Amino acid sequence: MKQIIYLLLGIICLVGCNSYPEQPIESDKLPDIVPDYVGVEIPDGIAPLNFYMADDSVDLLDVTMVGAKGGELHVNGSYADFDMEEWHELTRQNIGDSLVVTVCARRDGVWTQYRSFPIYVSNDSLGEWGVTYRLIPPGYEAWGQMGIYQRDLASFEQSVIVDNRQMDGQCVNCHTPNRTDPQQFTFHVRGPHGATVVSINGQTDILEPQNQSLGGGMVYPYWHLSGRYIAYSTNNTHQNFHQRSNRRVEVYDESSDIILYAPDKHEILLDSILASKDGLENYPVFSPNGKTLYYCAAQRVDSIWKNYQQVKYNICRIDFDPQEGRFVGTPDTIVHARQAGKSANMPRVSYDGRFLLYTVCDYGCFPVWHPEADLWITDLQSGEAYPLTEANSHDAESFHNWSLNSRWIVFTSRRDDGLYTNLYFAHVSVDGKVSKAFRLPQRNPKEFDEETVCSFNTPDFASGPVTISRQQLYQKIMSSDRQGHTLIKP
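^ thats the sequence. predicted structure below, dont judge the formating
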């Protein structure tokens, strides 16, 4: 008898907690939803695009999603919370077409039905298991709790790769896999137990973080496709603050060079071509065929902080001989940003070799706090350069990377509130056309926006989860043992 009573009470509760639109007022306006998923293009297999209304006076949503090729979803609640299995079935069914979304919102007991909008399901799959990234509070000179994380893009599951609370609160950054391979990665650690970590198929080396011969730490890494080399920049980095500026903080290099590390030989190549006395070289990136290195270069200026707005970077490239492990010839400038009064940095070449993706800002090499910073593409076949207008925003776009199939990009953007950076994704067609960007889906996006106090940065795609033993990794980093190396200066 008690079970029947409890069941009836549960049914009454469910009925009482839900209300459905009856004769809603029709509006020709699009709904103001957060995140903004109106008209975005998504890959099949992405986690559900849950959303809520920006208007806090809305107390209930009723959302219907109909596939152009068939299938339908309906949700009713304080936010749009789609069932995981039903969502994936609907997107699979509508690959190459669209989902039509109709939103009704209730305010003070009155329902409004907004103009329907599409979500496009791309013919191009994502082809990746997930993404890796660092989560860090938006602090400045000092750092606190932070970590490197990984996220399954088909669900909302996030897991830890490295948590700095297990390493006396040291700074961890720049986690970089080799072509999205979770079994080959490197990252940098700053602090009393500083190190550069290089892990290849379960074998992990802990290198000295810096030495006098290099002049700085080994940061901003990029792997050669063979895994035999990793290019790093070695930077003497500083921070300073603007008294009157919406840029808040400026990160700049007193000096920076590019080095090449050979993990199997424990050799570091310091070539004067990429370590010039009068230049600042940064952000090295190998081409997909491994025969070219792209990087950023600027001229030094006197009293660099006072004259930092004069520091503007071009993007250059130089030939590389992978058999001999050396650079060949002289550098060539391919993005002449300085001539346009701008600074280009953070280059990334699509894995099909067609496009160069980079960030353009007014000056400097760290655009994270530059609201004018936008993503650009140069077509390496035609030489055409253009901004990613559909994906850019009014605020800073910065760290970015390509999916292995070269059809998707992930990047960080400060567009949501000007303070925190979130992860955004966009589709890039074979001819370089870019879709409207969409934000990384969250199970409860309203709760996420209200409670999250960390920024995402240095994202990259991952073909699978990192499975290294964290405890063993922590022990190695916290020990005094460091792998030695031989420095070669040709």
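Helices lie at 2-17, 84-93, 445-451, 470-478.
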